[in-house]
């Protein structure tokens, strides 16, 4: 299924966009906007060739009535990102394929937090993820970017930052065994667009 949007697909809180079982492509137009929401999952979607476009953007009714949406019913320029996350929390993006967009592939900005990007593939772009916003140095100095048991190939690197010995945000009853990154292909062979 190939979807070309005329305006950004604005995702509401507590929603899942799930592409399992079918090949879903969002392409050649505005793509996904996540703004002023929480608890969103995007799984198994192929998002590529997103474009900047000026047009009306749908606002979730709950946000419009409170005047909290960052977009209005006036003309709005869509960013050209595959996924644009603003002022949102508890966002999970996994097993997605993102490629070749006008701006970045994933932008996380304006006080967004608890964003997880997991087992996705990024190609044909120089700005894969961009984290930006208006936080003070005192705030962003506390941020922690880590990578545990991830597999980096073809010269890819990850630079950790922040406090190294932070405690996990889960209790011992939620603990589970983590397997080696080399097993990812076997464990996810039918989970989404990652190649087998």
Q: Report the top-level CATH class of the domain at 2-137.
A: Mainly Beta
| Rg (CA only) | 17 Å
**By CATH's scheme, which homologous superfamily of the domain at 2-137 applies?**
Single-stranded right-handed beta-helix, Pectin lyase-like
Placed side by side, the strands forming the largest sheet appear as: 1-4-7-12-15
CATH architecture of the domain at 2-137: 3 Solenoid
Q: Helix amount, in percent?
A: under 10%
Keywords: Lyase
Protein name: OLC1v1020356C1
GO molecular function, one term: pectate lyase activity
Domain Pectate lyase: 1-184
Question: How would you characterize this protein structure?
Answer:
This protein is mainly beta. The chain has a domain at 2-137: Single-stranded right-handed beta-helix, Pectin lyase-like (Pectate Lyase C-like), CATH 2.160.20.10. 7% of the residues lie in helices and 32% in strands. The chain has three helices and 16 strands. A five-stranded parallel sheet has the order 1-4-7-12-15, with no helix packed on it. Strands 2-5-10-13-16 form a five-stranded parallel sheet, with no helix packed on it. Strands 3-6-11-14 form a four-stranded parallel sheet, with no helix packed on it. The longest helix is centred in the first third of the chain and has 6 residues, at 61-66. The chain is globular, with a radius of gyration of 17 Å. The two termini are 21 Å apart. The relative contact order is 0.15. This is OLC1v1020356C1. It comes from Oldenlandia corymbosa var. corymbosa. Pfam families: Pectate_lyase_4 (PF00544). Keywords: Lyase. Residues 1-184 form the Pectate lyase domain.
């Amino acid at each position: 299924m190939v979807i070309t949007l005329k305006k950004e697909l604005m995702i509401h809180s507590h929603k899942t966009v799930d592409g399992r079982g079918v090949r879903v492509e969002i392409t050649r137009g505005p793509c996904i906007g996540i703004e002023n929401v929480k608890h969103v999952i995007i799984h198994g979607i192929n998002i590529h060739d997103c474009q900047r476009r000026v047009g009306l953007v749908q606002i979730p009714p709950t946000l419009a009535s409170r005047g909290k949406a960052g977009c209005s019913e006036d003309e709005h320029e869509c960013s050209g990102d595959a996924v644009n996350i603003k002022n949102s929390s508890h966002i999970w993006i996994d097993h997605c394929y993102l490629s070749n967009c006008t701006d970045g592939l994933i932008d996380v900005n304006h006080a967004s937090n608890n964003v997880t990007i997991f087992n996705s593939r990024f190609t044909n772009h120089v700005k894969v993820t961009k984290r930006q916003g208006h936080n003070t140095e005192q705030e962003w100095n506390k941020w922690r970017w880590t990578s545990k048991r991830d597999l980096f190939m073809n010269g890819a690197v990850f630079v950790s930052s922040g406090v190294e010995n932070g405690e996990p945000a889960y209790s011992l009853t939620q603990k589970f065994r983590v397997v080696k990154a080399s097993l990812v292909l076997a464990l996810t062979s039918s989970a989404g667009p990652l190649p087998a």
